[in-house]
Amino acid sequence: DTEVTQTPKHLVMGMTNKKSLKCEQHMGHRAMYWYKQKAKKPPELMFVYSYEKLSINESVPSRFSPECPNSSLLNLHLHALQPEDSALYLCASSQVALIADTQYFGPGTRLTVL
Amino acid sequence: TQLLEQSPQFLSIQEGENLTVYCNSSSVFSSLQWYRQEPGEGPVLLVTVVTGGEVKKLKRLTFQFGDARKDSSLHITAAQPGDTGLYLCAGRNSGGSNYKLTFGKGTLLTVNP
Predict the structure, then answer these.
(1) What is the mean pLDDT of residues B3-32?
(2) Using CA atoms, how far apart are residues B77 and B58, in angstroms rounded to an integer?
(3) B64 SS3 class
(4) What pLDDT score does B1 carry?
(5) What b/e sequence results for B101-111 when a residue is b if at least 16 CB atoms lie within 10 Å of its CB, and e otherwise?
(6) What share of chain B is helix, strand, coil (3-state, %, to 5)?
(7) Cβ separation B105–A41 shorter than 8 A
(8) ∠ Cα A96 A101 A107 (to 5°)
(9) Which residue, of A14, A95, B22, B70, is most buried by count of CB atoms within 10 Å of its CB?
(10) Do residues B68 and B52 make contact, with C-beta atoms less than 8 angstroms apart?
(11) pLDDT band at A46 (very low <50, low <70, confident <90, very high)
(12) Residue B23 C-beta-side C-alpha neighbours within 13 Å
């Protein structure tokens, strides 16, 4: 089983709202990732978690706050977003983070910020 | 910064035709992955290639990793409308920050019935 699940599938929020995106994998992977993808562009890395600890923050604005409650779950908390933050947010996982390893992506959350 | 040049960027063909998508770099990658993505969905892994010169086949899809591990190609034989999608190559850096996937810009393939 190489499944990464994400909820919700679609999310519409105002600029003053607080919302969260959720990601789950049961492959025993110890590395999890958040990506942002604009239409017809490749995914852009936002955060990397390795063994439930934040390893990499690719200079992401603080209005995006990641959280890894356990080895299977990854959340992305959203607050005071801007319309330009509208995008497809992808979660991915791999066995480990710091060696050559295949990443498996979830289906994504389509976020619209009004 | 390692770059992956992917070409062509857009490709529209008729059902039954063959096509090849290329990913090229001046840098060496420890591995390279190919994904297919449909609109509004996440990328789905097609294959990972690791060894220089490696060739992998997945039904009508043939993937090749260059001998020097700097380039890769995806060849589709007798394309079908179900092959339509965005094809992404992504390489793992051979050293340094190898947690990061370097993505090509993608090839948007449309196969017309």
Answers:
(1) 94
(2) 11
(3) strand
(4) 60
(5) bbbbbbbbbeb
(6) 5, 55, 40
(7) yes
(8) 90
(9) B70
(10) yes
(11) very high
(12) 34
